[in-house]
């Protein structure tokens, strides 16, 4: 035993010595290869839009253009992106900020994008490199008054807690300006206790470098990457952010503190919540109510909501929950319903089946069933680990929303966009507080690839699918190798490692290519784009570039999506939508000449945004109506009408236009929110069927065929399924005002 311990210590010491001697210098921001696009390319994009304007003769309609962007992009400056890029686990290597710039311009053909690496890993050096790279990307865009692309600077505040009362989720922060004297000196992080600890030990780093010798510098650089974070001291608390030293890691514990620090800097910024209903990070009983207070919400900055990304769709509300509170505040597992199977309940079923197969009595197996349910609930987001030897197929389709569009894994309904728009904050009963969110889509890509949703190809390249391509040690480590015992194990979710706690193996069936943010803007320049974002004249898409207009018509005025107004009569609306261009394979000529074939292949995988002249048709337009709470005891489900109206469209390539009114608005005498969904014809999308259930005659999922990230699903299998790409308008907020009130005003 002593010799074995000594051998292990010697091996660890040897690995540490080798890593210390061989660790390469920290990687920088990279070099931007592509220059500004040819003027003809940009002009051709604008011409395609002008030809699609529903009524160019109408005031305002012809004075704006639709631009597409991605306001949620990670490079390997983010710690999770860095680890996901490991070649031995299917990653494609380092992708610094320069790669994101080239990808956005030449692969995805975006009009704007922002960098949003996790602030928890942005050391002073990385923040300086990020600022410089964004400025270089903008410099290569040409005339600032008419650039081919605008790049915004930002970070992600990535707060996670196992306690729902302390969980606030992730928020992207983006800034109008990029110069050093016009942006914060530091990124502002959320607290993360284990962030500076490398998830791969020194001995494993050395073994990886030997197993993949060609990429040895990558593995030998893991320790120096995390040492740089560990060597950055945390800034002291209680000091004005402008008075803190530049070389420390600044932390904001909750949104209130984040907003306070942004106020102290005083620079123009927008804060965008995202991934809110993604159950991998979000505790089961989390709701957005605790954030709708005058302390935890900043209505000046927090004006957009990321409704769709490569992590799934956070739009749709449902009554069911993954766990429910008892009167004493404790959590228990709910019973299943026709449209929802709680994973805690499924844990009990798995254990009961094993128990019965082992020959135990029915009474004993029932007790183990109940115990397994409770153990799962008590373990929080690590509940799957309470079932020893579990695998993805054991869980069937638990935790999913079968009638939702491209939902995230373990959907949390009380953290969705619809829930956010329906609730009110009653800390001041005379002046209820409400969220006023515009809706955007983004990619949340972690490979330096803004706007990956332009084609549904190459799942292992265009999504976050993550896993060893071969059945080697790295692949086996991602699976539960414990014996499948006929009893549950109680675990402390707080003590589980970050990767295993999140059931990454199952998540691979839910990774999507990602969405886009679309804006109606008066021009292509930075200020025009920023102005559109600030007035919420924005909409989200699921990746395809649908065109969407949503207006309230009042007299001779047109109030676009994002507007707030008061009316004494029934509101009248008009929606116009047009399908996205069908894509041709490969990349356009300008991309080949701009990046060169080698970089085009390595960055874009040989596939770029490459539109044909033919459009997809719009299948239908749906209207969602939400009447926000006027009392705290109003059931949110009763306030959301989804869909409220549905309009079937003729299969016309030039799109679909509908008009409607709300004849019940005056009688209701309450504020009402409206937004539109444009639904495109059916096409194939990666992971649209997520776990690919086989259903019985009663509609129950009886078997699944997961889309794995590792070798069990072939690398060239894209896991395509039929789905209908869509666009979500930002809401129009209409308050009721009696005619007498209008006259008095």
TrEMBL record:
**Compositional bias of kind Basic and acidic residues:** 470-483
- Keywords in alphabetical order: Signal
Q: Where is the signal peptide?
A: 1-20
Q: Where do the record's region annotations for Disordered lie?
A: 466-491
Is Signal found in the keyword set? yes
Presence of keyword Ribonucleoprotein: no
Q: Which InterPro entries match?
A: DUF3604 (IPR022028), Pol/histidinol_Pase-like (IPR016195)
Q: Which Pfam families match?
A: DUF3604
Q: What protein name is recorded for this chain?
A: DUF3604 domain-containing protein
State the organism of origin.
Answer: Halioglobus japonicus
* Source organism phylogeny: Bacteria, Pseudomonadati, Pseudomonadota, Gammaproteobacteria, Cellvibrionales
